[in-house]
Amino acid sequence: MIRLTVLAAAIGIGIAVPYVLGAYMVSVLTLGLIYALYAMSIDLMGGYGGLITLGQGGILAAGSYGVGYVASRAAGGTGRQLLYGLLATLILSAVFGVMAMRTSQVYFLMVTLAQGMIVWGFVTRSTALGAENGLRGIARPAAFSAYWKYYYLCLAIVAVSGLLMGVITRSPLGLSLRALKDSETRLRMLGYNLALTKFYVFVLSGFFAGVAGMLLAYYTNFVSPANAAFATSGRGVLMVILGGVGTLFGPVIGAFLIMLAENILSAYLARWTTVLGLVFVLTIMFAPGGLVGAGRRVWRRMRRTGGSPGPTQTDPLEQTRPPAPSAAETSAGLSGGPTSKQT
Amino acid sequence: MTVQFLLVQTLNALSFAALLFFLASGFTLIFGLMRIVNLAHGAFYLVGGYVALTTIAATGNFWLGLLAAPLAVAIAGLLTERVLLRRIRGQELPEVLLTVGVAFIFADMALEIWGGDPRSIELPAFLQGGMDLGFATFPRYRVLVMVAAIAVGVMLFVLHSRTRYGAIVRAGVDDREMIAALGVNIDRVFAGVFVFGSLLAGLAGVIGGGMLSLLPGADTEILLYSLAVVIIGGLGSLPGAVIGSLIVGFADAFGRALAPELSYFTLFAPMALILVLRPHGLLGGR
Question: How many CB atoms lie within 10 A of CB A171?
Fold first, then answer.
């Protein structure tokens, strides 16, 4: 119930934005929407399956470059641009999915990181894709060229994608993905094909990242290797962690916060990447559940104690908590649960 | 394709493999014991190279640079481990992601201090120039790097398999509760290994700074090579690091010479093959 209210409120605010804010803010928020979709695609795999990818930038770039190649090299129309963007995304996701599907946890993270950087290396060297200069002259479809129309297009696509991802996490596939996070061994014993589950989710997650990449290409009107860079992949993961892993809504908040901060603060801060690094470190150390996790804890405590924190009624999560970040919090947050404790 | 071409490319491959071994051995030692994939390893490499560059430019002494860089990076490693990683120990993914944040910070600070232009370390006269090998002349520096890698490799193996310190680390890999119960301060061992691994990354920075150029982005590029090495060789295994370095070194040298535009695919192909056939690498356990 609360969830639906929040969702309806968010969409309502989203629709109202262009009536209230100026062109600049609307276009910053458009970027926020695109990155929200990108962050949700990372969370789909990372939050629910414990498969955190550090190479999603590579898949995002596949979508961007697919659109960009047709637009600037082949002079094709919007239909063909979208087709190539989707094809590039799906082919790359399938190949990378096959590579990564038998790994988990830290190995998965390493493999995806290497994949993302190989895409980056490829696009920086490929003359057909404009090498370091990237591809220019990607025009938005005529119906959406005005900034506010493009904003509404992004809002609609991101909202629908978010709902679809919500449905996926509640589907049988999503449930086996959650089980996979809790215990791979148990799931394997029950006869599930883990590799195949991971493969499906990898491709689905890649699809949403590719859509974000296509929206981004039309937003900026060009693509550059920076789309595939380690910084893009890392920033996506940061959005997920900052908002709250495994919540889908958290990454949206994380994406908006980071994109707003980047566009507003980076005018005053020369060393923006350092700030991102610090946010990364501080979130992991002090708020492993992200902003949504912290918010939930406060909410629960307030409800239980009727607004004032009483001494006798403590949160069970807090009680089982050893001095260091606890097992209870771990299984709710980033780590993969019991399997990760193997030595 | 002549015999000479093959021989020269083989030497290129071996010398690049030597550089990769310095990086990957530290990387793999840290993972073997602590289960931490230190993604700041590339940034540590870059900072090591830059510290050596500045030291050599200020003092004119190559050896001081070779000493200062590993020390500086070891201190960075010590701080990272004691201040940050120790507090979230035992949670694999948060630990790895934390090192991503550390990598961001170090790389950005390096950009602030040393700027964005490619730079390389000024080598002393006796390391410059070529060496006549009969079939071709080959940079003397690269030959010495290979010799140094073999020396350090042998030293690491002896340290790991013949000394008490090596025994403690190996025992810690197998069962850290047991070794702690036997009265070894495993916490200190962890710090020691992390610092030692960082020291190797700093050393690799000096070596790489004389061979390749130092610039923003070199950190993630060298990290990619190290990842390829350990993915192929198997994470946590020293012999795996040797084999992985050789495979990546050869794939890269011949890829660059034969198909420059596709050079990253020469990394991609062996990695994809290994991952499909043996997901934990050639010599990886688990």
Answer: 11
